[in-house]
Design goal:
Layout lengths: L1 H34 L3 H22 L2 H21 L5 H22 L10 H15 L8 H6 L1 H17 L3 H28 L3 H15 E2 L2 E2 L8 H19 L5 H21 L6 H13 L3 H20 L7 H7 L7 H16 L32 H34 L4 H20 L11 H13 L1 H9 L7
Antiparallel strand pairs: 1-2
Length: 485
């Protein structure tokens, strides 16, 4: 016994020596670089010890690899905007691979990774989509370069599902991610607030002058985009966060968490409003509609239905608040004859005629005007707008039906798990909020191409995975296997 303790103490001492020694060495080298007028070199050298410590932490707790991915996913767009470094999405790919390697090493050393967890229906479903997208490379009209650039479209679903299943073993892991998500949401709201009240910085102004102003600096008012790729994504992310934290706030046990989530929810609602995004309003509306069903409570169902009817009547059949530019813009989303909607329908007719003899589509990455400078195709000369039109154009009617079938299965099976297998009230509320958020994004993606966009994409896949392991988490809580954060 004493010998074992002695060995453990020795190992601990070595770890401390390596940690402090590495940090000290890095600090000395950084100072030397600064003295020699190499600022960038000093920063790089100074980060090496921190990077080594991060690797050490990741090998011990691969869970933080998933957390890192979620954070990288959130800041990949602003990083590109402020650095002008193209292709930074490769960092996401490398992080996924490195996290998986950390899981394998950790499993070999500690045997704590439960690989049986990947025997999950969601892994099977995501594998089907992965295989189909991989086979798209054989499409006669496919382009290899476009297919490679669409790798996230192909494997993110499977990869994030796999990592979440392996790394989120406890209920507290999910709550921790929810807290991190709330902080990221507030950061997005804060940046939107700064843009709204103090204007755009030089990088954002440059982006607007390079073409972004056509869709953001309108006669009817400015559309703010915060740290995201566009105001459309900003509105979708905020609408997604609003419905999740609003629903979750009603179920949390601790009062301060309920108040905090409520604050996050309405901060996100503010972000949704200043984004001026019409289609994003569908996310909270669809989320509330599903919530009324999942709750199985008449006290939620009736007020929820009344609220939805009132919102619809307010926007579709009245002119109340028409002088407000944000209300006026949202109201156009309820007009079936709105000019942009008519144009989208005409574009869909053009795609229908072109794709009538292409059941597998044009090929991955070969749709939308945003890639027409790289790939000259008929399908890249017409805006797709809708996520489902993008799926249809790139993977054909077969791919579209497969994709819609997968989404329907996720919502129906997820609802079944929540309604009949989850008993703990707080867990049920969180999973309900996550599934309602996913459902809202699915509905909203009919009018906007948001489902596969950063930063919403990774949170969608983690949310779905949390719902699909809801039964196991509920049993874990029942057996008192969790500890407080």
């Amino acid at each position: 016994m004493n010998k074992t303790l002695s060995i453990m103490n020795t190992i601990t001492t070595y770890k401390r020596v390596l940690s402090y020694g590495g940090l000290s060495t890095g600090l000395i080298l950084m100072i030397v670089c600064f003295i020699k007028d190499s600022f960038l070199g000093g920063i790089i050298v100074g980060c090496i010890p921190l990077f080594l410590l991060y690797i050490y932490l990741l090998l011990i707790h691969p869970y933080w690899g998933l957390v890192t991915l979620l954070i990288l996913n959130y800041f990949i767009v602003p990083t590109i905007r402020y650095t002008h470094f193209e292709g930074l999405s490769v960092v996401i790919d490398l992080m996924i691979v490195f996290t998986l390697i950390a899981i394998i090493i950790n499993s070999l050393v500690s045997n704590k990774i439960n690989w049986k967890k990947i025997c999950n229906k969601l892994i099977f479903v995501s594998s089907i989509w992965l295989v189909y997208c991989c086979l798209e490379i054989l499409n006669p009209t496919a382009d290899t370069n476009a297919w490679i650039l669409s790798r996230g479209f192909t494997y993110y679903f499977f990869a994030i599902t796999l990592l979440t299943l392996l790394l989120c073993e406890r209920y507290n892991d999910i709550k921790r991610i929810l807290y991190i998500w709330s902080v990221l949401t507030l950061i997005g709201v804060a940046k939107g607030f700064i843009q709204h009240h103090f204007g755009f910085d030089s990088f954002e102004s440059a982006w607007l002058h390079e073409g972004g102003g056509r869709t953001h600096l309108l006669i009817t008012g400015t559309r703010y985009f915060s740290i995201y790729a566009s105001a459309g994504i900003f509105g979708a992310v905020m609408g997604h966060a609003f419905i999740i934290f609003l629903i979750a706030s009603f179920y949390m046990k601790k009062k301060w968490i309920r108040i905090y989530f409520f604050f996050v929810a309405f901060s996100a609602l503010y972000g949704l409003i200043i984004s001026g995004t019409r289609g994003a309003i569908a996310i909270p509306l669809a989320g509330i509609a599903l919530w009324t069903i999942l709750s199985k409570k008449i006290m939620i169902f009736i007020p929820g239905i009344i609220l939805l009817i009132c919102i619809y009547v307010f926007f579709a059949h009245t002119f109340i608040g028409q002088s407000n530019p944000y209300i006026r813009r949202i109201r156009t989303a309820f007009d079936p004859n709105e000019p942009s909607l008519v144009i989208r329908r005409e574009n869909q007719k053009l795609f229908k005629a072109y794709l009538k003899d292409k059941p597998f589509g044009e090929g991955l990455g070969l749709s939308g005007v945003d890639v027409q400078d790289k790939f000259k195709r008929y399908t890249t000369s017409i805006p797709t707008d809708s996520w489902y039109v993008k799926i249809w154009v790139e993977t054909g009617i077969i791919g579209l039906l497969l994709h819609i079938g997968i989404l329907l299965y996720i919502i129906i099976h997820g609802a079944y798990i929540i309604m009949f297998h989850v008993k703990n009230r707080e867990l049920k509320g969180i999973l309900c909020a996550l599934l309602c958020g996913v459902f809202g994004v699915i509905i909203s993606s009919y009018g906007n191409q948001i489902f596969g966009q950063f930063p919403i994409v990774f949170f969608i896949y983690t949310s779905i995975t949390f719902v699909f392991i809801g039964k196991e988490l509920d049993q874990q809580i029942t057996n008192n296997q969790i500890t407080k954060i």
